[in-house]
Amino acid sequence: MEASLIGGWGFAAALALMIMRVPIAYVLVGVASVCSLIAYAWRPGGEFMFERGLRPAMALIESNAFDFIHSYSLSMIPLFIAAGHIAYHSRITTDIYEAVRVWLAKMPGGLAIASLFGCGGFSAITGSSLACASSMGRICVPEMLRFGYDKQLATSTVAMGGTLGSLIPPSVLFILYGMFTEQSVNKLFLAGVLPGILTIVGFIVVVMIWAMLKPDHAPAPKDLNFTNRDRLKAAIKGWPALTLMVIIIGGIYGGFFTATEAAAVCLLFAIGFGVLSRRLTWADFLSSMKETAFQSAALFFIAIGAKIFVSFVSLTGVTGAFVGFVDSLGLEPWMVLFFIVMLYIVLGMFLDSIGTMLLTLPFVIPLVEGMGMDLIWFGVVVVKLLEIGLVTPPLGMNVFVINSVVGKEIKVHTIFFGVMKFLVADLIVLGLIVAFPIISLLIPNSMG
């Protein structure tokens, strides 16, 4: 059997299994292993010989898994995850929300805007969208509902704010993208800063317009009377979170740290602050380490599966066939990019973000690279598209996370209706990133 045909069937099988909600790690490892065995055992023009294919297929699986798990860059994932959990238990992440809430308390829509800033700060420390939506949802949504905010506005704001964890560094998606495309994770982190800020500004504009058109949906609290002293104390309270952001962004930009070193320094700072402030108990520390081990193991398993899948795709030559087919169509680069964007939006409706990225990168990267597009810029575009996929129906992982947090009294469709308003801003930001690559490349290109 032709190797490219085996590769095409393997990709179709992986896509079908993911849509059926089979765990992504099992899909990538299983499909790549079986199809690699078939490719080695069933050579073109010959008969299928199981014994001939077993040894090279096992060697492919073993070597890729071993080489990948010993990657130095991979060590930043558990470090950032651990730093995020410690920061959460030390209440570093929630201090951002509390500080902004005090400053914007009297402003219509102020609590919603404070929630966006809180989510942005949480994302800048933890790098996880789902963790951000889950943690901040427990804090922000009840607070907004207590002051009479509309359920749709309260829930959709935090659902959208949670997506910022994909774009604002550190981001697990950027780490995985950098490792599989052999791009600098440092530059990817910095490339996400301006698009992340632009996204937050877009969401704030949506909240302000919403509050202006429907004042009863975002009433200004009347029983909150914060003094200037309260505001100053709140601002000072946010210094640990600001320090962590400076370590990550300033440290990398200034050349003081690599991304991995920044992760280690952030973890040490979070632990030190938690211990000295007596906010971090031994039980919290153990809980953080257990969650870190669980999440890291899951991500490592997925990453190993993706590495094996990439090798399988390379073995079958299906990528070359795909690129050749697209070239034969004679499409303009902007048309190819348009179809790639549509592909990610559609897949994002049904697959989780990591699965979508790891399944498609072996095919789209050679295509994009062949058109001479910058892979750092394209990484930001991909992560932005995956960010949108976190809130698009019918899957919308962040929406379901918020729904599980707030309980059954707020229906899923209520959150989705609110999210649609924010998606307008998201699509505008996406259009700006695509049309003006300098938005993503300005900071990384200015590195010394």
Please tally the helical runs, counting DSSP H or I stretches of 4 or more residues.
Answer: 23
Overall pLDDT, averaged? 83
Strand content: under 5%
How many beta-strand runs? 0
Overall description:
Part of the tripartite ATP-independent periplasmic (TRAP) transport system. Belongs to the TRAP transporter large permease family. InterPro entries: DctM (IPR010656), TRAP_DctM (IPR004681). The structure is a single chain. The chain has 448 residues and is mostly helical. The chain has a domain at 73-298 and 394-445. The chain is built from 23 helices and no strands. It has helices spanning 3-19, 24-41, 50-69, 76-89, 92-103, 110-126, 129-146, 151-162, 164-167, 172-181, 185-191, 193-213, 228-237, 239-253, 259-276, 282-316, 318-328, 333-348, 353-370, 375-389, 397-406, 412-435, 438-445. Helix 2 (24-41) crosses helix 3 and helix 6 (110-126) packs parallel to helix 8. The longest helix has 35 residues, at 282-316. It is globular and about 80 Å long. The N and C termini lie far apart (51 Å). The model has no long low-confidence stretch (mean pLDDT 83).
